[in-house]
Amino acid sequence: MLASLAVITAAPVTSGDRPSSFTESEISRLKSAKSLMAAGDYENAHALLLKMYREVLSSTSARTEQQKLLGQAKIRLGDYDGAIAALTNVIDFPRTDRTMALINRCYAYLQLNLVLDAQRDCSEARRTVERNNAIRSLNEAPQILRDYHQISLNMVDAELLLRSGQAERALEVLNDAASLVEESDLPGPLHMQAYWAVIPFRAEVPGAQGMYLP
User: Fold this and answer.
1) What predicted TM-score, i.e. pTM, was given to this entire model?
2) What are the boundaries of each domain within the chain?
């Protein structure tokens, strides 16, 4: 499915991302899981996160991050039911940023052809992203993280639009995502080159053939 090109990148670690509610061991293992996923080693990342799942962790924040990454790993391994269960745990936790969990669960629902569930999550994620963008001056999240959310949302949104026969609108959504990719030039684990897949995805939309370079 086309949306798989951009969705499910391990969430970035921004400066200052070292909450006191995590133990040193938890921080180390979560970073290891992210590194394994970034390298494409989803099986070992899954095994590490599953081991943490069976342990008593130090805080709700630690459990939330573990479940978020476990959901991403399960999607990469094709366990969409398991991914939905893990991501639902993240979404149900209080006082957590649910944006990427909603987007990733939307993607998992799409793989199971549960379109109404996917539409619900996409709509809720869109409201969250729009609210965060509207109060960006007050929002502590860095711009690169907000771009990450917006691009990921646009990819699943485009998939939903394509499924409903709205190719023209899907192309508009992908153009917005491509603009963010092309305008961003930031180093680090969230470098926008990771999102160049949005370009061929855009070119595959019905009616867009010949408009863009391969």
Assistant:
1) 0.78
2) 2-9+24-204
38: which 2 tokens?
């970034």
Q: Classify 214 as helix, strand or coil.
A: coil
Identify the burial level of 172 via C-beta atoms within 10 angstroms of its C-beta, where 0-12 means exposed, 13-18 middle and 19 or more buried. Answer: middle
Exposed/middle/buried for residue 26 (C-beta within 10 Å: 0-12, 13-18, 19+):
buried
CATH architecture, range 2-9+24-204? Alpha Horseshoe (1.25)
The long-range contacts involving 187-190, CB below 8 angstroms and separated by at least 24 positions, are 188/12, 188/144, 189/12, 189/13, 189/34, 189/38, 190/12, 190/14, 190/144, 190/145, 190/148
Maximum pairwise Cα distance, the chain:
54
Question: Quick check: 83 and 105 in contact, CB under 8 A?
Answer: yes
**C-beta of residue 157 within 8 angstroms of C-beta of residue 122:** yes
Per-residue pLDDT tens over the stretch 154-188: 888 888 988 888 888 888 888 888 787 777 654 44
User: Do 128 and 96 form a contact (C-beta atoms < 8 A)?
Assistant: no
Whole-number Å distance between alpha carbons of 130 and 176: 14
Q: How far is CA 17 from CA 27, 31, 44, 57, in A?
A: 10, 11, 23, 18
